[in-house]
Design goal:
The protein is mostly helical and about 60 residues long. Helices cover about 55% and strands about 0% of the residues. Helix 1 (about 10-15) crosses helix 2. The N and C termini lie far apart (about 20 Å).
């Protein structure tokens, strides 16, 4: 989102993912992501999963 200067609202409109889901994901307040959500985000943002997911020690 930061790299493309997108707001949560922009991501919701581009992907069709719910506002609550986008907000939770952007705030790192979720522990899992559904395949359908990941697919919608990748297609809507024109990226691969590797651009969205980062491995963390947490």
């Amino acid at each position: 989102m930061k790299q493309k200067n997108l707001t949560n609202k922009d991501v919701v409109e581009l992907t069709g993912v719910s506002r609550n889901t986008v907000t939770s994901l952007s705030a790192n307040a979720t522990k899992r992501i559904d395949y359908d959500t990941l697919t919608a985000l990748c297609i809507g943002l024109g990226v691969t999963p590797g651009k969205l997911l980062v491995l963390s020690d947490d």
